Amino acid sequence: xxxxxxxxxxxxxxxxxxxxxxxxxxxxxxxxxxxxxxxxxxxxxxxxxxxxxxxxxxxxxxxxxxxxxxxxxxxxxxxxxxxxxxxxxxxxxxxxxxxxxxxxxxxxxxxxxxxxxxxxxxxxxxxxxxxxxxxxxxxxxxxxxxxxxxxxxxxxxxxxxxxxxxxxxxxxxxxxxxxxxxxxxxxxxxxxxxxxxxxxxxxxxxxxxxxxxxxxxxxxxxxxxxxxxxxxx
Length: 233
Description:
This protein has 233 residues and is of the alpha/beta class. It has helices spanning 6-12, 23-32, 83-90, 98-105, 121-125, 128-131, 149-158, 182-198; strands at 41-48, 60-64, 75-78, 94-96, 113-116, 160-164, 170-177, 209-216, 222-224. Helix content is 30%, strand content 21%. The longest helix is centred in the C-terminal third of the chain and has 17 residues, at 182-198.
């Protein structure tokens, strides 16, 4: 069993862990209790009533957060000329093809997102065994396989994130930093939750959202009422 430190335990005792809060109250609690020496990420975890083992119940998607994630995202674009220059002009950190394919084969994966063009997917696909387990494999559904390289780079840099249900039925994402204003976090969270709701598979039966939790990087989870997302304030 995982053991938590004194600070974590003290935070956990500072509120009713059996209570379910509306999402504005939960944001306040998480921000108040983010006491690490660094700016902690603000996370959301949604447990869904789907069976991830079934292809027709796989929940995945992309969403552009209105206020970004607060993270510096390192973007690699794998593309031939002149698309590589287009990528760099749009703000990509790295761009090229052969050089970076070889670097990845040698074990380099110090990037957060890889974008590529459809014409080089044959070469990029060979890197699947390296990129797949790290969640770095480009995918047309996430907008990371496209000829519109400049827009794809700008979207990622501006706060576009990808999510995918895991094998236990959870969708997890960092939607900002605890230093963000509450209003900005609320808007990012509502945007993310709305996207997950719209991604509900038609074959999903019963209750779709089983639970929602907010947390900071180092803090305990706070249970949130999914109904509070639907209340217009």
